[in-house]
Amino acid sequence: MKSAFTVFWKEIRENLRDRRTVLNTLLTGPLFAPLVFALVINAAVTRQLDKAEKPLEVPVVGAEHAPNLIDALKQQNVVVKDAPADPERAVREQEADLVLRIPGDYGDAWRKGEPAQVELIYDASQRDAQGSVTRLQRALEGYGQRTGALRLLARGIAPDLIRPLVVASRDQSTAQNRSGTLFGMLPYFFILGGFIGGMALAIDTTAGERERQSLEPLFANPVARGSLLAGKLGATSAFAFVTVVLSIVAFSIVGHFLPTEKLGMSLELGLRFGALTLFVMLPLVFLLATLQTLAAAFAKSFREAQTYLSLLMFVPVIPTMLLSVFPVKVQTWMYAVPVMGQQVAITRFLRGDLVTPSQLGLCFAATAAAALVVYLITARIYESERLAISG
Amino acid sequence: MIEVSNLHKSFGKVKAVDGVSFAARDGEITGLLGPNGAGKTTTLRMLYTLMTPDQGTVRVDGIDAASDPLAVRRRLGVLPDARGLYKRLTARENIAYFGRLQGLDESTIRARSDAAIQALEMEDIADRRTEGFSQGQRVKTAIARALVHDPKNVILDEPTNGLDVMATRAMRTFMHRLKDEGRCVLFSSHIMQEVAALCDRIVVIAHGRVVADESPAQLLAQTGKASLEDAFVEIIGSEEGLAA
Predict the structure, then answer these.
(1) CB A220 to CB B78 under 8 A?
(2) Are A187 and A264 part of one and the same domain?
(3) pLDDT at B94
């Protein structure tokens, strides 16, 4: 036990002296992801808000054929611009989001009371233009309906007669639910944080030590290999854990600067969220550190270990991707699957949904059990004769 | 006192060690001489319990290595073929790490480190990080680290490998000092001159087997040759893999 602590402190001290490891695991790892995430979210939110509030610029062909329609659009905060020479081409080449064309026979049809046609030229594959297209469509339909109602009234008919059905939308999502969808990727950042945080040490303490030829002298000491392994795993887990804690703290801070309330969302990023997230992440950090050490123990060199671990990094992505592609209902068994359990639980914490103590316990216990199994396998590998021999 | 009897070790079909027996006594320097690939390193690795023999026994001060490997390692100071240091730690921290793993208390570690640093004349590098150390400085640090627990038995695998003339001389002086302190010193080498100059006893290994176990004088008498070099060639049967 004492030897395990000796190994632990030596690995910690040695790796704290490696500036690159410290920067990567304690600064870049935990801070890079939330910052990028915040920037992306901020930009997306701001752009959506901009589009909703800003005057909508619409190039119009043949505006002179429908002065009343143009006036009505201007009241809806639409700015009418001169149209490009070839509207279809301009939209295809993304020089314009959309173009409105009013044909020359618009006035005749209107006066005769026939449906007057206007053309909306847009590209449905341009998601960026969707908001503008929808806004203009609504404005045009609104104008049509108002005019229709006035015509019916002029003929003494109640306009309600042609509206037999009214749909009232009742959205049951709470403000926190909506932010949960937006932040579905967040658990992955925590899990990835733990992975990146432990990576440098997992390699350094096994494959790196063998490559530097210091493993054989180390094994010549009167210390059981299990104790050496425990110390090394402890150090790897400690780095990974610090990375996770920093990720959570960074997210809690960054979350407050996100303009989520403008979208009618609220995030549960308080102390409770932090504590619960740490609780479910704790066994996962140990599981990942042990998996990394196991993979690195098989590698003959530092480089080989890096390759193995980069491949291993895709494993925690799988449940995240599955859950975002097939958004199935959360079921209790999911808490028993390491990584998926954390993913589900953290998403629910964030949405302010309830996770029962038994589900929490299941998540913790199942991941801890998996970690123990991997630890026992790694310990067996550590006992093998070939592990120490370099070259 | 290190006693080895009938050691066998194979890697797949290759018999690396094929029935090696010898004894290294306290207060003597025993040299394990043999061409490259003769099985010296594998034999030593079984002595410090890094490898388990397929057959045969190792005893250190009467303790069986198979039944109590930790006790055996406590009685051994080992400079293995692989002698990597932790380059982000200073020489002194490297020594102290092994001292703690040997279970020594901090004041003992400090006293032993000071003594070793003085004996190996490495005061100028003791508090520097070992990154960028010369080969000689690295070997000195590795030896100080291996002997921090004041072991009765010392195993050195090719200790002068890669050292320049001055460092080699210093190493030989140091080995004599270990002998004079009454320790059992066992080292391997493929350099005849070195073995001849240092050893009280020479164990010649070739093809995984002991082919001679004598004092240098006896070796000459047995082969009837005038020089040790000729004697070795006679015993081993070829000049392959030996360096003068």
Answers:
(1) yes
(2) yes
(3) 96
What residue type is assigned to position A305 of the chain? A
Record: contact A3-B51, CB cut-off 8 A: no
Instruction: Examine residue A50 and state whether it is found in any structural domain, yes or no.
Output: no
As a whole number of angstroms, the longest Cα–Cα distance in chain A is: 104
Final residue in a domain of this structure, among A146, A166, A186: A166
Q: How far apart are CA B27 and CA B176, in angstroms?
A: 10
Q: How many domains does chain A have?
A: 2
CATH class of B1-75+153-244: alpha beta
* Closest Cα in chain A, distance from residue B34 (Å): 21
Q: Is A171 an interface residue toward B (CB < 8 Å)? A: no
A305-340 confidence digits (pLDDT tens): 888 888 888 877 777 777 766 766 778 888 888 888
Q: What is the ipTM of this complex?
A: 0.91
Taking the Cβ of residue A386 and every Cβ of chain B, the question of whether any pair is shorter than 8 Å is answered with no
Q: Is A70 exposed, middle or buried (0-12, 13-18, 19+ CB in 10 A)?
A: middle
Give the residue from chain B lying closest to A13, CA to CA: B89
Domain boundaries, given as residue ranges, for chain B: 1-75+153-244, 83-150
Which residue range(s) make up the domain with A64?
Answer: 55-166
Interface check B175 vs A, CB under 8 A? no
Q: Does some domain include residue A46?
A: no
Q: Which of B47, B50, B74, B85 to mutate to test the interface with A (most CBs of A within 10 A)?
A: B50
Phi first, then psi: give them for residue B128, nearest 5 degrees.
-100, 150
